[in-house]
Amino acid sequence: CRYLSKRIEDCSQYKNSVKCDIEAPFICSDCLHEVIKNEFANWSSGNLLIDKFIQKAQLSLPYIQYPEWIPFNFFTEIKCINRGEFGAVISAKWNQGKRMQISDIKRYYSRSDPCAVVLKKLKDINQLSLIKTQHQFLNNCCTLYGITQDPSTSEYMLVDPPSVCDRCLSDVLEKEFSNWTSGNLQIDKFIKDAQRSSTYVEYPEWIHYNSLSEIKFINRGGFGAVYSAKWDKGVKCFSEIDGDKYHTRSEPCDVALKQLKGEKYSVHLFLKEIKAQFNCCHLYGVTKDPSTSQYMFVMRYAPQGDLRRFLQKNFYKLTLENKLNIAQSICAELQNIHAKGWLHGDLHGGNILLLNEEDAFISDFGLCRPVNETRMLDQKIYGVIPNVAPEILNFQSPYSQPGDIYSLGIILWELICGIPAYSNRAHDVNLIVDIFKGFRPKTCHFAPPTYDLLRKCWNQNPLERPTINEQWQLYLSQKKFKILTSSGYCEELTLEEYRAKYFQIYDCYIGPYFNPKLKLELNNSNKATEIYNIMEWKPDIPVHPDAVYKSCVISISNEYMTYNMTFRWEISDIPYVG
Question: Where is each Protein kinase domain found (predicted)?
């Protein structure tokens, strides 16, 4: 063999009457360890701990799995791509190539062509003990090519492949289980089971509270308090190198912490919501406030807040396209929940969170549950009255996916018109009775065809409402906008036609702030231009003092359960909430 010590005169091929070819570009397994031992004197990392770590691994692991000391000048095309758990993450090309096995039968070994690698800077050389745990060499995969040192900074760096297979990742996580605990066996079991069954980005973690900083109170909802924080470790993510996805972490990032209110919210109820959160949306993990001993969810942070407050501050800035994109993201979120066999049970504007002007996601899974998990209703219902379906208010049906569709219709109405449903009246039994009778929010001018979809969502009969998949397809296939002018004329336009004809108002707010007395004139280019006067805008929309838009217990007496339900649809002459 080419790398064979001169003291070795034969190898396995010689013993089998086939002499080793001295010029062969590979090495056989029988010669490997002798060559490795002889090479120990020819290199040093400059650190005794690293030298021992590499040497021990090389003598105990197969050729393709052991780490090696790699001189830094073997790397080219070096560039920083991200930040990892231990430090900076850098991509590079390894000109020597990774170790590989040529033949399974004769076990010949060689090297590949130059390949992409990831260099991870170590903050502290004492992290080697953790590296030994996290870089296991399992399932014939190499999760660590070796270690190098940047001569310009004297920093040691791990040399990793761009990606690790899910089987190896699962095994590494298994070995990590003994290094952490939440302090509760049920929560530990949930996290471990989720990590065994999920991909790298999806699985939740146990997050040490001391890795969270800048913790600030945001709001208090029906199920508990919400805080913002900075997660110093960063969220799990992928970096792409030469088409391969590399497991890494983001820079320190903002996250939301949710703490369930009151001692009555036991670990059982905490687990119930966390399972719903994990199954229906992204959950970073779980932490525990040491000052209160209360567990908290660690979730995505929404810098724009909830939909209701966002609309109060930004409605006049939103274009129709912005609104349609927000509606699309809400529908996509609910489609994901329903596709997994779950229902949300408490959809309203306060539970829709905004990442930006076009992307929203659903939160607050306190009432979320699998569809097949039946639950008997007592005389108390939980939610926001305008968003609760009539069959639930009337105790005809438990919470259901059609009930979610009804709530979705109310949310989309609020998105389009800019004000909460039924904001001008008390949220009491009288409103509930009107909803029983079929009363719905009134339309407003310049509403896109989404109103046709809303009417389907609001159908008094839950069996007649579209499923979220049907709703989604209706939304995507909608080509025309039905425009109702002040004169009562209705015309259908495509989005492009709408933008061209009503270009003056397309990029303005649409909703209750327009004077309904509009005139159409032709400009010099023969394009119809909408001439309008905007009503005086009031930043504070009047809301009835007894209108409640936070989830709460709704108590209804039996005397109100006997009303006939006839659907009533009203088109307002002046944009107004019914």
Answer: 212-476
- Specify whether the CB–CB gap between 320 and 286 falls below 8 A: no
* Beta-bridge partners for 239: 246
pLDDT confidence of 244, banded at 50, 70, 90?
low
- pLDDT value, residue 250: 78
Which CATH class for the 182-300 domain? alpha beta
Half-sphere exposure of 84 (CA within 13 A, CB side): 24
Taking only the tens place, the pLDDT of each residue in 63-118 is: 777 889 999 999 998 887 666 555 667 888 999 988 877 655 455 667 888 888 88
Residue 182's pLDDT is what?
93
Choice among 157-161, 349-353, 558-562 with the minimum mean pLDDT: 558-562
Phi-psi region of 556 (alpha: psi -120 to 50; beta: other; left: phi over 0): beta
DSSP 8-state assignment for residue 306 = B
Write the CATH number of the domain with boundaries 307-560.
1.10.510.10
Kind and range of the H or E element at 457? helix 450-457
Reduced to 3 states, what is the DSSP secondary structure of residue 95?
Answer: coil
Q: Which two tokens stand for residue 415?
A: 């998105």
pLDDT of residue 574: 26
Q: How far apart are CA 267 and CA 378, in angstroms?
A: 24
Q: Which helix H or strand E contains 323, and what residues bound it? A: helix 320-339
CA–CA distance from 328 to each of 321, 361, 479, 496 (Å)?
10, 10, 15, 18
| Cα–Cα distance measured from residue 247 to residue 237, given in angstroms and rounded to the nearest whole number | 6
Mean pLDDT over all residues of the chain?
A: 74
> How far is Cα 364 from Cα 484, in angstroms, rounded to an integer?
36
Rounded CA separation 348/277 (Å): 17
How does strand 283-289 pair with strand 205-206? parallel
CATH architecture of 43-168: 2-Layer Sandwich (3.30)
- Which pLDDT score is estimated for 138? 44
Q: Which residues contact 255 (CB under 8 A, 6 or more apart)?
A: 212, 228, 229, 230, 231, 235, 284, 298, 299, 300, 301
Measured between alpha carbons, how far is 381 from 364 in angstroms, rounded to an integer?
Answer: 17
Give the whole-angstrom CA distance, residue 435 versus residue 421: 12
Which of the given ranges, 55-64, 427-436, 503-512, has the highest pLDDT on average? 427-436
pTM higher than 0.85: no
Q: Distance (Å, rounded) from C-alpha 475 to C-alpha 467? A: 12
Q: Which residues contact 410 (CB under 8 A, 6 or more apart)?
A: 348, 386, 387, 421, 441, 458
Half-sphere exposure of 165 (CA within 13 A, CB side): 10
Who's near 324: CB < 8 A, 6+ residues apart? 448, 450
Name, in order, each residue with C-beta under 8 angstroms of 513's C-beta and a sequence gap of 6 or more.
Answer: 316, 418, 534, 535, 537, 575
The reply to whether domains 43-168 and 182-300 share a CATH topology is: yes
Please name the residues in contact with 423: beta carbons below 8 A apart, sequence gap of 6 or more.
Answer: 541, 542, 543, 544, 547, 577
Angle formed at CA 573 by CA 570 and CA 578, multiple of 5 degrees: 45
Q: Where are the domains of the chain?
A: 43-168, 182-300, 307-560
How far apart are the C-alpha atoms of 207 and 209, rounded to whole Å? Answer: 6
